[in-house]
Predict the 3D structure of the following.
Amino acid sequence: MLNPSRYRILSVGKVRKNWIKDGIGLYMKRLPGLTINELRDSSPQKEAEIIKTRTRSDEKLIVLTEEGENFTSIVFAKYLNTFGSQRLTFVIGGANGIAPEIKASAHLQLSLSPLTFPHELALLLLIEQLYRATTIIQAGPYHRE
């Protein structure tokens, strides 16, 4: 069973658009325990230092990047389910991307799409997919094939 309280998102940059804030708020209510930490937008190297200090040794790091692996929603749900109660930290980089050493240290490089999205939209898409994965594993009605 997926446990959103074991998930954390480190997102570079602040969410400024109200419609994205509303969407994030909707899914956060559906995913109790999920935490989002907004990091100050800076250079990839400075962001990397902050990410390193904010990542715990018992967490698996999943970095979002357009070069990462693509999953269907069902495969993503099953993949997340393999972690059981382990802690997962998802990282969304800023406008200049994620530093190579953070990508190299990641357990997985994940792509939401081969398209590039602003960090705010990537955050909303990730949270929606985490909720979708939860409902897939629980065989809920949200995801329809």
